Amino acid sequence: MNKLFRINYSLYIGVIFVSFLFFLSIFGPYLAPHTLTETLETKYENGTIFAPPLEPFEAAEFPLGTDKWGYDISSMILYGIRHTIFISLAITLIKMMIGTIIGIYVGTWKRTPSWMESIENSWSYVPLFLILYFCFNSINFGNILETSTLIFTFIIVTSVISMPSIISSVRKKSTEISKSVFIEAARTLGASRHRIIWKHIFPQMKESLLVMFILEIVYVITIMGQLALMNIFIGGTIVRYDPLIYLSITKELSGLVGQARGNIYGTLHVLVIPLILLLFTTLSFSLLANGLKNRYQSNYQRTPWIKTGFEPKLMPKRKEYEKRNSWWKFTDEKLISVIFIFIFIGVAFYFYSITK
Amino acid sequence: MVRVIQQTIFIFLLILFLAALPSVIGVNPEEKTLTWDFSKLPQVYGDFIKEISQGSLGTYQLGYQEREISEDIGDNFNTSLLIMLVGVNIGVILSLLFGIFISRFRITRFVNTLLNLFATIPDFIIIILSLILAVKIYKMTGIRIISLRPDAGALNIWFPMVLVGIAPTLYLFKLVAVKYYQISGEDYIRTAVAKGMRLNYINFQHVFKNIEPFIIAELTKVVSLAIGNMFIIEYLLNVSGITKFIFLSSEIQPIAVGLFSMLLISLITYFSVRLVLYLFKRGFLYE
């Protein structure tokens, strides 16, 4: 029984969910039962009327139902999910790479310049989605700009404005590590700054950087959702007058939630289904991060002396030096580098497909 | 002191830049390209400074009506301030309570798992879900627990307070839980245990004192999280707070005034939390 409690469930469930999401985001458009422009024609079959808005699980052709104009919700989700996943991945990749490099180098300086700290502090006061709101409020509506231009602008602006917080947290960790004794020893032995950073400091932080990477994905999705509530959908907003409605061009998940906001009083499923999908997306990334954190925590934490109520149940996984290294041996690092290669390929493929 | 002045200057510049952003960025409809028009900046800022120096805050658009900002700002400011003060303070107190002082009991462990679960859900999803829930409850029982009318008094304002409080609670709780676990492995805790001190005593005198600096360091982040959620909550729940000036217009005057009042609100909230922590220390801790 104890053994069952000690399985790191959130890691395994997270890995499975995230790979499912990747699968959906790569093959989604091929799996979709309808195109984005097909609508449900009202029809009368075996004594029942099929008319939009169709509830979920009523008709086999429209598995998740339709919205009130008859567009299939499951197709919209399958077409849109790749935008959500790959845009957030691209932003996170850019900001984490640049932020880590800057932060880690600044952290080894003798003292941090005070202007840098004050920029970081004042930047952390302003909510990021507000900056994006002001940025996109005048350009996002009425499809004047190309969708790909809007997506690229969003990716670049978001990665730049969320970089200060990454730099600040990496810098603090790097400063803390560079005070350790082993760094001093390396310096005494004549190691150059780059060697100290990449051979001594970076290996110490790579685990927390990985957890941070995954949590930042969730954070980007949150920002996209907040913008969507203000009718700013990533990739452009179509505005229809009389009655005034806002529609997402890319059908990206948070955009679907945002455009279905008015359905809260009546046809609830149009709002709830994309919301559940969005929740599933963020939850699977959070689970993955949580699982990794659990594992690292059980490996490196000291045991508390008092009862805290937060004791991890996992057993630490130790490095086994005695075992012979054969090339197919499964390790975390290999798994993670494979995942990163997949992410790179996926993002590149996505960029190729939207610019085409 | 130099750093404080530097920070103030940066925040001022940032707010002015943000407020001017809508008039700088635009699209060129013929070429379908983004345009950055910095030539308008001097004029925009000139107008802003002229308006302020004349002693008026300027006007904003409310529907087709043009109203003085200074007439309306008092009430809106108070509403937002009240929501923020109550929300953030509740958040800090709850997270400390569940994170440190009662976290070891079996019943609160259940609450802790619940909090951990909620912490994985983004705040805006929690906000939408709670709205759906409120509508459902009204449909099923006929009890109106929230009201979207700005003049509904307490019905309009209690729900925003709770929703604003959610994000600080979850964020601080996660932080406090990690720090508590780390600190309880330190040597001075072992010394205290070896001396035969009670667990409550250790929690107050040893653990809390060492967690407090981390909380204070994260306090700006917490307040900014709450501010970010407040924008969405006021927008979705139709609370007439300070964000009305920011979302209803694209001119510099109301946006800048709104953002500066937001800054003031977050400063007041920050110092109120510091006051609460100070009072707690004076009341319970042996200095």
From TrEMBL, chain A:
Q: How the protein sits in the membrane? A: Multi-pass membrane protein
Which keywords, in A-to-Z order, does the entry hold? Membrane, Transmembrane, Transmembrane helix, Transport
Entry's transmembrane regions: 12-32, 85-106, 126-145, 151-170, 209-234, 271-292, 335-354
Query: Do the record's keywords include Transport?
Result: yes
KW Transmembrane helix (keyword) present = yes
Q: Which residues form the signal peptide?
A: none
Quote any Pfam family the record assigns. BPD_transp_1
Q: InterPro entries given for it?
A: MetI-like (IPR000515), MetI-like_sf (IPR035906)
In terms of CDD domains, this protein maps to: TM_PBP2
- Which terms does the UniProt entry file under GO BP? transmembrane transport
Primary location recorded for the protein, binned into one broad class: membrane
SUPFAM superfamilies the record matches: MetI-like
List where in the cell it is found.
Cell membrane; Membrane
Q: Name one GO cellular component term.
A: plasma membrane
| ABC transmembrane type-1 domain mapped to chain residues | 81-289
Protein family: Belongs to the binding-protein-dependent transport system permease family.
Name this protein carries in UniProt: Glutathione transport system permease protein GsiD
Q: Which organism is it from?
A: Pseudoneobacillus rhizosphaerae
Top-down, what is the taxonomic lineage of the species of origin?
A: Bacteria, Bacillati, Bacillota, Bacilli, Bacillales
Give the gene name: gsiD_4
Automatic annotation (TrEMBL), chain B:
Instruction: Give the bilayer topology.
Output: Multi-pass membrane protein
Cell location: Cell membrane
Q: Which residues form the ABC transmembrane type-1 domain?
A: 77-281
Q: What is its main location?
A: membrane
Segments passing through the bilayer: 81-102, 114-135, 155-173, 214-237, 257-280
Q: Which Pfam families match?
A: BPD_transp_1
List keywords of the entry alphabetically: Cell membrane, Membrane, Transmembrane, Transmembrane helix, Transport
Keyword Lipoprotein among UniProt keywords: no
Q: GO CC terms on record? A: plasma membrane
List the SUPFAM superfamilies hit by this protein, alphabetically: MetI-like
Gene Ontology process terms (BP): transmembrane transport
Give the family, as the similarity comment puts it.
Answer: Belongs to the binding-protein-dependent transport system permease family.
The protein in question is named ABC transmembrane type-1 domain-containing protein
Q: Which organism is it from?
A: Pseudoneobacillus rhizosphaerae
